[in-house]
Write a structure and sequence with these properties.
single chain; 853 residues; mainly beta; YmcC-like fold; Immunoglobulin-like; 6 domains; 12-stranded antiparallel β-barrel; 13% helix
C-alpha cells in the first residue's frame, strides 16, 4: 500500500493528526487561492471577450438619382448629383444639398434657408467617439453671412430612436456652431453657440431624425428638425433562405448531393447552418453580417427518407428555416455470376430400341423412432420507429396565429427524446429516462406571419434520430384599415407645405388609394396587383386655418375605408425686416432632357436605326459647345442605365426639370423616336386624332395608357418654373408607312393638322420645333447616320446656323437654317419634309456660342 499524497495524510501508512490539520489548512488556502485565480482569469477572459466585440460602425452610403427621403418636412427626391453634392428636392422651392459625406451644405424652404461655405466635413466610417471640426461661414436667410464660425461634430452614442416610421438603431451625432460676437454699445465680445442633433440609421442608409440640440446659452437650430415618415427598405427584406437544389420530395439514386442556394436579410445574415436527419453537417459564421450569404454544401444521404434543414440567423438572433424531404432509393447490389441460377441440361431421351424396364419398389426398411424435437419460436420483429403527425398538414395556409401540433412517435426500441422547433427555435423538449414504446405530441404553437418551418425531432433508445417537417404559411386576416401616421389630428403647423403619410392594409388586397385636401383630390394610387400592405405618401399644400385631410382606400369588391385628419395652418407673422445687402444678379442655369428611342419592346412597333445616335450627338453638343453642365443634362436612350420608358420619360420631364429649373433658367427638351396618332375619344382634336410620343414600353393597341400624349406636354410646361422652354421633336404623327411614325390599330384617318401644336404653345415662353409638318414623314438618312432633321440641327448648333456671323447661334437662326436645309435635302432624296416652329420667346434666345477661327 502506497502512502497517500493527499492533503491531511503523512508520507506514511498511518495518519498523523498534526500533519493532517496543517495540511488541511494548507489545502484550504490553496483551494481559495485557486478559486480566486480562476475568478480573476474568468474576469480577464470576460473583459477580453467584451473588448473583442466589434463596436458599431457605419460605412459611407452612396445614392442614385430617384431615391426618396419621405420626411415630415417634405417628400424629398434626389434629382441630381453635382460634383461632390447630392441635391434633394421636394418642389415648391424646398431643397436640401448634402455633401457625399452627408454633411449639410444647404437647406432651402421657400424664401428661408441656410448654408455653409465651405460645407462641414464628416469623417467615415461613423464610430462612437469620432469627431471633427472646421471653420465655416454660416449664411442665414441667404443674405447674411456669419464668418469665422467653428463647426464641430461628434458621434455620441449608438441608440434606439423612435420616429413616425418606427424604431431605428442609429448613431446620434451632435453638431454645434460657436463664434465670438459683440453685444451692447461697449462692443464687448461674448461667446455664442447654436446646436442641433441628427440620427443616422445604417440599416436604411439615411438620417431618420433631426432636432435642436440642448442649449445652456442661446438656442438650438430648429430649422433642420424632421422625422422620417416611411422608408424605402430594399435592404430590409425579411430574412429568408432560398434553395435552388434539391427540390422538395426529390428521389435520388445516389447518396451524394449538393445543397445550393442563398440566405438573405435586410439586417444581414450572421450564421447559416445545415443539418441532415437531425445532425449538423455545416456551419458558416460571418464576422460581419452580410446581406447575402451563398450556400453550397455537399451531403451524403442515408438510404430511404432524409430530412434537410437550412437555418439562417441575423444579428438580432432571429432565425428562418427552409426544409426539404428527400428520398434516397439505394439500388440493390448486383449478384455474382455464380449465384445466378443456370438452366438444367435436358435429359437424354431413351432410344426407341431400349427394352421396357419396370422398376419394382423394394419393401421399406424399418426406421427407428426419433425422439420429439422441441423448437423455440423467434421473437416477433420490433415495429418500425416512426414519427406520425396528424396536424398540421404540410404546406397548409392558416389565418390564425396559433395552431395545434398533434401526433404520435412510436416503435423501434422506444422513444427517449422528442424536441419540437419552430423556425430554428426550440419550442419544447421531452426526455425520458426509460424509453417509452410510444409518446404522444400535443401542444399549441404560435406562428409568425409568412412561412414557418415546424420540425419534430425524435430520438430512439439506441441514439438514432428521426425527423418530420411541416411548412405552415400564416396569412393574417386583416380587414381594410387606413392608419394615418402623419400629421397628427388637430395639429397646428406654421409651414404650408407638408406631407401626409398613411399605412393601408387588407388581407384581400388594396386596389386604390386617394388623398384629398379640403375636398380636392391631390393624390391617387392605383395598384394593378392589389397589395396587402401599402405605404402612401403625398405632398400637400395647406390653406390658412383648418384643413381636412382624407385618405380613402378601396378593395376590389368595392369596400371603402377612410381616415380623416384636421390640421391647422397658422401663417407665421412676418419678422421685422432686416435691411438686406444688394441682391446678387439672378443665376441663370440651363437644363436639358435628351431622349432617343430606337428599340421598342413590342414587335409590332418598327425599330429605328438612328434615334439613339441622334440623342447621343445632341447630348455631346449640349455639354460641349453649348456649355451645359453635365449634371444639368439628363440622357435617356436604349444604352443608358435608365431606359426611355413612359415612367422614366415622365419623371425626367415632369420631376427632374420641374424640381431643378428656376424662374430665370432655360430648358431644352429633345426627343427622337416614333410619334403615332390614335382616334381621339374626347373630341378635342379638329382632325379627330390624338397624338403621342412613343416610349420604349408602349403598347400599340393601347396608346392612351402606355404612351405620352402630346397634351401632356402642356401639363409638363406648367410644372416647369423656367421662363424659357424649347422642345425639339424628331418624330411625326401621320401614321404613314416609313419614317418615324406608325399607325395604331384603332387609327384609319391619316389627315393630321397642327392645331395641337398651337394649343401647346399658348403659354408664354414655350416653343416647339418639329421635324416635319403634321401630315409629313420625318426621314432617316443612311448617308448621315442620323435623322434628317437632327443632322441639320447638329450642323446648326456647331456653327452653321450663325447666319449673322456674330459668333452666337440663336433659336430663330437655328430654325431658319434647319428649315431651309431639311426642305432642300428631303426633296433631293424623294421626300417632302418641312420643319415647323410654334410659339414665341421674348427677345433673342442664344443657344450656342460659336468658337472663333
Amino acid at each position: 500500500m502506497k502512502a497517500s499524497t493527499a492533503p491531511g495524510f503523512c508520507q506514511t501508512q498511518v495518519p498523523c493528526c498534526f500533519e493532517a490539520g496543517k495540511k488541511a489548512w494548507v489545502g484550504v488556502v490553496w483551494s481559495v487561492a485557486v478559486l480566486l485565480v480562476g475568478l480573476a482569469v474568468c474576469a480577464c477572459l470576460g473583459a477580453t471577450a467584451d473588448a473583442g466585440e466589434a463596436s458599431p460602425r457605419a460605412e459611407r452610403p452612396t445614392y442614385g438619382v430617384g431615391e426618396k427621403w419621405i420626411r415630415t418636412d417634405g417628400e424629398y427626391e434626389l434629382i441630381r448629383i453635382e460634383g461632390d453634392r447630392y441635391v434633394f428636392s421636394a418642389g415648391a422651392g424646398r431643397e436640401i444639398e448634402l455633401t457625399k459625406d452627408l454633411a449639410i451644405a444647404k437647406v432651402r424652404r421657400g424664401e428661408e434657408g441656410m448654408s455653409f461655405d465651405p460645407p462641414p466635413k464628416l469623417t467615415w466610417p461613423l464610430e462612437i467617439g469620432k469627431s471633427g471640426r472646421n471653420q465655416v461661414t454660416w449664411y442665414r436667410s441667404w443674405k447674411i453671412g456669419l464668418p469665422s464660425v467653428m463647426y464641430s461634430w461628434k458621434v455620441e452614442v449608438y441608440e434606439d430612436v423612435q420616429t413616425f416610421a418606427g424604431r431605428f438603431t442609429a448613431f446620434r451625432i451632435a453638431h454645434s456652431l460657436s463664434w465670438r460676437s459683440r453685444k451692447g454699445g461697449k462692443g464687448r465680445e461674448t461667446n455664442s453657440e447654436r446646436s442641433f442633433v441628427t440620427w443616422y440609421a445604417p440599416e436604411v442608409r439615411q438620417y431618420v431624425k433631426a432636432g435642436a440640440g440642448e442649449q445652456t446659452e442661446g438656442e438650438g437650430i430648429n430649422f433642420v428638425a424632421f422625422q422620417v415618415l416611411t422608408v424605402d427598405r430594399p435592404n430590409l427584406a425579411l430574412l429568408q433562405v432560398v434553395l435552388r437544389e434539391p427540390k422538395e420530395q426529390s428521389r435520388v439514386t445516389t447518396d451524394g448531393i449538393t445543397v445550393t442556394g442563398k440566405a438573405t436579410g435586410g439586417k444581414g445574415v450572421s450564421r447559416v447552418t445545415v443539418s441532415l436527419n437531425g445532425q449538423e453537417v455545416s456551419r458558416q459564421e460571418e464576422k460581419a453580417a452580410k446581406s447575402e450569404v451563398p450556400i453550397e454544401v455537399a451531403l451524403t444521404l442515408a438510404a430511404g427518407k432524409n430530412v434537410l434543414l437550412v437555418t439562417a440567423t441575423d444579428p438580432d438572433g432571429t432565425s428562418q428555416q427552409e426544409a426539404r424531404t428527400l428520398f434516397y432509393d439505394k439500388p440493390a447490389p448486383a449478384l455474382p455470376p455464380s449465384a445466378v441460377a443456370q438452366p438444367a441440361p435436358p435429359s437424354a431421351p431413351s432410344p426407341l430400341t431400349s427394352p421396357l424396364v419396370v422398376a419394382v419398389p423394394s419393401p421399406p426398411a424399418p426406421v427407428p423412432a426419433a425422439p420429439p424435437v422441441v423448437t423455440t419460436p423467434p421473437p416477433p420483429p420490433l415495429p418500425p420507429f416512426q414519427v406520425v403527425l396528424t396536424t398540421p398538414l404540410d404546406q397548409v395556409r392558416v389565418e390564425h396565429e396559433s395552431i395545434g401540433l398533434a401526433g404520435v412517435i412510436s416503435g423501434g426500441k422506444g422513444v427517449s427524446r422528442v424536441v419540437v422547433t419552430l423556425n430554428g427555435v426550440e419550442v419544447t423538449r421531452q426526455d425520458e429516462r426509460t424509453p417509452l414504446p410510444a409518446l404522444p405530441v400535443n401542444l399549441p404553437v404560435r406562428l409568425r406571419e409568412g412561412s414557418n418551418a415546424l420540425v419534430v425531432t425524435a430520438t430512439e433508445a439506441d441514439g438514432k434520430v428521426y425527423q418530420e417537417v411541416r411548412t405552415v404559411l400564416y396569412e393574417k386576416r386583416i380587414p381594410l384599415t387606413v392608419a394615418i401616421r402623419y400629421p397628427e389630428d388637430k395639429a397646428r403647423v406654421t409651414d404650408e407645405a407638408s406631407v401626409i403619410a398613411a399605412m393601408v392594409t387588407s388581407s384581400k388586397g388594396v386596389a386604390k388609394v386617394t388623398v384629398t385636401v379640403n375636398g380636392t383630390e391631390v393624390h391617387q394610387q392605383t395598384e394593378r396587383t392589389p397589395q396587402k400592405s401599402l405605404v402612401v405618401t403625398a405632398p400637400v399644400t395647406l390653406h390658412e386655418g383648418p384643413n381636412v385631410l382624407v385618405v380613402s382606400a378601396d378593395e376590389l369588391d368595392g369596400t371603402v375605408q377612410q381616415e380623416v385628419r384636421t390640421v391647422f395652418f397658422d401663417k407665421p407673422k412676418a419678422a421685422a425686416p432686416i435691411p438686406p445687402p444688394p441682391p446678387p444678379p439672378p443665376t441663370r442655369n440651363r437644363w436639358a432632357v435628351v431622349v432617343g428611342v430606337g428599340h421598342y419592346e413590342s414587335p409590332e412597333i418598327p425599330r429605328l436605326r438612328y434615334t439613339v445616335p441622334d440623342a447621343e450627338a445632341i447630348y455631346q453638343v449640349l455639354v460641349g459647345p453649348a456649355g451645359f453642365e453635365k449634371e444639368h443634362v439628363f440622357l435617356l436612350t436604349d444604352k443608358t442605365e435608365r431606359k426611355p420608358t413612359l415612367k422614366n420619360i415622365k419623371w425626367a420631364l415632369g420631376t427632374f426639370l420641374a424640381r431643378s429649373a428656376q424662374k430665370d433658367d432655360t430648358v431644352v427638351i429633345f426627343f427622337a423616336g416614333h410619334g403615332a396618332p390614335e382616334v381621339d375619344q374626347q373630341g378635342i382634336e379638329r382632325d379627330g386624332l390624338a397624338k403621342y410620343l412613343i416610349p420604349s414600353d408602349a403598347d400599340p393597341d393601347d396608346l392612351y395608357s402606355s404612351a405620352l400624349p402630346m397634351d401632356e406636354l402642356q401639363t409638363i410646361f406648367g410644372r416647369i418654373e423656367a421662363e424659357r422652354v424649347v422642345v425639339f421633336l424628331d418624330a411625326c404623327y401621320s401614321g404613314a408607312a416609313g419614317g418615324r411614325t406608325f399607325a395604331s390599330k384603332s387609327t384609319r384617318a391619316l389627315t393630321v393638322d397642327d392645331l395641337f401644336l398651337e394649343r401647346l404653345t399658348r403659354s408664354k415662353g414655350r416653343a416647339i420645333i418639329t421635324a416635319s409638318r403634321p401630315a409629313e414623314v420625318s426621314l432617316e438618312v443612311a448617308e448621315f447616320g442620323h435623322g434628317l432633321f437632327t443632322y441639320y440641327l447638329l450642323q446648326g448648333l456647331n456653327g452653321a446656323a450663325d447666319l449673322n456671323r456674330d459668333g452666337i447661334v440663336s433659336l430663330q437662326e437655328l430654325y431658319e437654317y434647319v428649315e431651309q436645309q431639311v426642305t432642300q435635302k428631303s426633296r433631293s432624296v424623294g421626300g417632302n419634309q418641312h420643319p415647323v416652329m410654334k410659339g414665341e420667346l421674348e427677345g433673342v434666345l442664344p443657344l450656342v456660342k460659336v468658337k472663333g477661327p
